[in-house]
């Protein structure tokens, strides 16, 4: 079922245009290959050369804004395909007057057309849609297609941080990462009873799941040397 368009969405998006700096659809794939690329100058966008991290599927913005507050010397880009959702993230960043947060309103498959190689210092995959049916495997954000995109834009030593409540998606991700050139470490199937909880920032979904007594899976992955 399609999400109903929020009231005054266009005006709300216009009000946060300084934060939601890119809105794109998969129509870009229809362009000739030579015309698909529009590599962004991230130092120009943020006004500094600080490290840049992505949160892919940033939702309403709780995680990325809290993380940006705690790490003012790191820049963050939230990627979210739904306008209805990303507008709330943009509004949250604007309310908090965060200079180190921007948003892309698009799917992760389009990152390859806007980010140059050796650009990103960290990628957060928080509670991604698990797409449990086998025929939708290629939509999972840890499918090999997406992992190759991440691998291309990640700097040497960069890491992927993944959290999910879905055990099946977690097991799939562990295996997919390992099979596609990543070293997987810091694995836990119960984050809130592990050594990795210190410094954890919870997302909206995470807060809900934990309140219901659900266990949270977590891992860290880096490109194999």
Could you walk me through the main structural features you see in this protein, from its secondary elements to its overall organization?
The chain is α/β, with parallel strands linked by helices and 225 residues long. The protein has a single domain, classed as Rossmann fold, CATH 3.40.50. It has an 8-stranded mixed sheet with strand order 1-4-3-2-5-6-8-7, with helices on both faces. The mean pLDDT is 95.
How confident overall, as mean pLDDT? 95
Number of helices: 7
CATH level 1 class label: Alpha Beta
The CATH architecture category equals 3-Layer(aba) Sandwich
Shape: globular
Find the CATH topology.
Rossmann fold
Rg, Å, rounded: 17 Å
Short summary of the structure?
The chain is of the alpha/beta class and 225 residues long. The chain has helices at residues 9-15, 42-46, 62-70, 83-95, 144-153, 167-179, 204-211, and strands at 20-23, 52-56, 75-79, 101-105, 120-126, 154-164, 182-188, 217-223.
Give the helices and strands, then pairings.
Layout: H1 9-15, E1 20-23, H2 42-46, E2 52-56, H3 62-70, E3 75-79, H4 83-95, E4 101-105, E5 120-126, H5 144-153, E6 154-164, H6 167-179, E7 182-188, H7 204-211, E8 217-223
Parallel strand pairs: 1-4, 2-3, 2-5, 3-4, 5-6
Antiparallel strand pairs: 6-8, 7-8
Helix pairs in contact: 1-4
Jot down its keywords.
7 helices; single chain; 225 residues; Rossmann fold; alpha/beta; 8-stranded mixed β-sheet
